[in-house]
């Protein structure tokens, strides 16, 4: 079949790769100048089935209310967004009951485990490199209640293949000796040995190059003007001065998916949640960690990506605003330096690169995959904070559906129809 994929981020490129490997003729459209230029550009770098929980955990509403308008908070709701959040936000809160949260965590965890398996197979078959590391991920805690809550979530995910070890303070520092400089802060940790890390943008760029060798065509600098639907079937994509026909179309456009689906008469319950990252050179930091770290209380990630350090964190409900707020970005660096004072000293000697991007999040947590109500139009959308983790699994599933095969995972809980049940 001839297939158009809209989006050249990590979801779009992996979708194109799997479809091309299935023998389809694939064309990828993206408004950017190259692959991986938006959400995939500078995320935290973690590939973690261990953190598959949706962000609407029970009690999140009280955190949101407490942090409204606070620029230094890890979770920021800008007051001006409250009216725009009413529909999605009510759904977000409705899905924060314990039963729904645990059900959606199980869906995400199963998908994340499958996705990492698919990534590992892709790496074996292609030899692709993207500053990847298989050192697991270590989450550190300063509070017993928070550690107990995460341990409970980890136990829920364990039957799905998410292994973990609960560590006391001494064991945590023995596993990651660089934490010695913050020994007095650390109550303990939970280690997830099967998690990984890697540069999402580098992966996307290199897989796009491999996909081109498989015959995939990329058209960058191309804006989709309209998705043409007639009699309930997708017909064509309209771009500047051109109408592109094919047998099928996949929307895998990250934060653009909602608007594109609306052109086809569909409403996707997706809202963008902004995050920030800071990238610094590794050279000169005297005490870097070997294992990627998550500080639970400070909501900050510390990851080594080749010769760079990537710090990431914060969640900001600010609509589609992509402006970089210096104070928010500086908060990520400051929180990481609270874990590693030596990192703060290092940052003063170099020029950190700040970045912000939007995470396209559904109101219940899992992504939206597979067929749509429009015949011939398929969705790979709404992965939220797990886009990099989910990429290979989501795209393999969508490629299977498009190719008429039964996917490895049941789509219940991941299809668009769940919002109508």
The helix fraction, in percent, is 25-40%
Biggest beta sheet attributes: 9 strands, mixed
Q: What's the CATH class label?
A: Alpha Beta
Number of helices: 11
What distance separates the N and C termini? 32 Å
CATH architecture: 3-Layer(bba) Sandwich
Envelope shape: globular
Class derived from helix and strand content: alpha/beta
Tally the beta strands: 20
CATH fold name, please?
FAD/NAD(P)-binding domain
Going by CATH, the homologous superfamily would be: FAD/NAD(P)-binding domain
Spans of at least 5 consecutive residues whose pLDDT stays below 50 are none
- Give the number of domains: 1
Q: Tell me the radius of gyration.
A: 21 Å
Instruction: Estimate the strand proportion.
Output: 15-25%
Mean pLDDT: 94
Descriptive account of the structure:
The protein starts with a strand and ends in a 19-residue tail after the last helix. It has 421 residues and is α/β, with parallel strands linked by helices. It is 33% helix and 25% strand.
Short structural summary:
This protein has 421 residues and is an alpha/beta fold. It has eleven helices and 20 strands. The longest helix is centred in the first third of the chain and has 29 residues, at 98-126.
